[in-house]
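Why show two proteins at once? Because comparison is the fastest way to build intuition. When a single record is shown, students tend to memorize it. When two are placed side by side, the eye starts asking what differs. So, the first record is below.
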Amino acid sequence: MLRRFRLEEPESVAEAAELLGRFGESAKVYAGGTELLLAMKEGLVQYERLINVKKLTGLSDVTTADGALVIGALCTHHQLENSPVLRDKLPALTKLEQNVANVRVRQVGTIGGNICFAEPHADPGTLLIALGAKMIAEKSSSKREITAEDFFVDAYETALQADEVLTKIQVPIPAPNARSAYLKFGYLERPSVGVAVAFNLNGGVSGVRIAVGCAGPAPRRVAEAEALLEGKSKDEALRHVAEAGAAAGRAAQAISDLHGSQEYKEHIVGVLLKRAFQSALS
């Protein structure tokens, strides 16, 4: 049962940040609410105030600026899966968004809410790490950039300060020779394992970035696997991708839970990395 709370209605990001700073741990930002309200109904978390940011202007657009895709934190998953800009510039993210949760969640849930809630078995963070994305966090008097790989700290924990609001996600626009893919696997509603890969293909494989999510507490980049593919020819990389998958599985910090054992998840990481790499090549 959902307990009573006060709904604050700030008119600006600065006002929202001020409210967060004033009320501290008793307050939480509220956007789509698909994760937050469910957790509150189940009694897993409780807040005296929800700070409604859904009406804030300028945070619901997908644009391009200075060589980057700029995604407003209040963009819904439905909006992103149908964005012509994303479809043209970053089809891997479009495909991911088309398969987030279910239709109801995609209609209401926001990309910013998904990222900030930091649920371990969520999709977007893994691909954003592989794509070299940056999160733009703002407070009353300043703003800062946080790399995606530094943003996710632990299960349900991010690098946002107590009075910061996530406003935008910046993703570098891929070069014409860039390749990327995200694959996931799971037999429950949420994915058990997600793997993302991004690289440039220009004679050889370069700029490799690999990230693994859902297997452990938070998505993480796996440099050990990247090193096994970096600088290789296409054929050499294909020969080493199984080894890279095994390295990624070991480095994924997988944990045993309802979604599978540690050993099982490590194995699936390897399978998905091989498939994701081959998908990106094609």
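Second record. Ask yourself what differs from the first in the token line.
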Amino acid sequence: MRRAVALLAAVLLLTGVAGCGGNGAEPGAPKGATLVLDFVPNAVHSGIYAAQRQGYYRDRGIDLTIRQPGESTDAPKLLEAGRADFAILDIHDLGIARERGLDVVGTMPIVQRPLAAVIARGSGPVHRPRELEGHTVGVTGLPSDEAVVDSEVSADGGDPARVDRVTIGFNAVASLAAGKVDAATGFWNAEGVALGRRGIPVRIFKVNEYGAPPYPELILTASRHTVDSDPELVESMVASTTHGYEFVSDHPAQGLDDLLAEVPSLDRGDQAAQLHALLPDLHPAPFDSGVLGEWAAWDLEHGLLERPLDVDRAFQLNP
């Protein structure tokens, strides 16, 4: 599955938010900046909300506005147009945006491993990826799902062409719960956790355990213009966000409280379970250029990218 990365440009205009919102601020005042999330707020964003709640952005001179996604806009285009300063992008979407001529740059990894997985019913016949041959796998219809299935089945010695793929949209939980498919693509930290909380036993095959490198799934991203014209803002944003995720790693209960304080509509039980699953891979760490090169080659092999990606240009490896 793939998450939409979006925010309505009209919303940004109506709320008066523009990129590099510090224009006209008094000397010494925090600089306004906008961050577009990749999906509705959840535990994977806990370090961002902790940094906001604990005052880390303000301490480094940033007045940060966090925007939730809409359905019909494109976060990379918002970055390129100066309608947002930062965005959380799925790494595949970052690569695709660059192929489309948008000069967006990854500034830090948010989560250290892929979140994509194939999730099989625990009571079903699929005990490992190669056993997907001859069985139904629910996919959203996005190319990234096809890449995950192909990678996992091939890496486990099976034939991806023998997998019966059924397009189910973003209904993996309902489809698996009802037994409509034997397995489905999804995120182990979201659909996998949700099924477990429903008491539905599952087997989770993470893509980095079957063919894919351990690439960072979500990336804090900025435009090349922002990186080059305001390196202090980028440095402060990265440092503050890193501090936020370090805080959550050291104090997960308080990090959860900070997330729920900022987004009270979230269900505490769901977010606590997601955060527990994510914590081993949520700690901040620098980009690994070798892993990024392997990821770019994997995306190219599976058709997510059409040509080799210049990793050194696409990511800020030495901020």
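One difference worth noting in the second protein: The radius of gyration is 20 Å.
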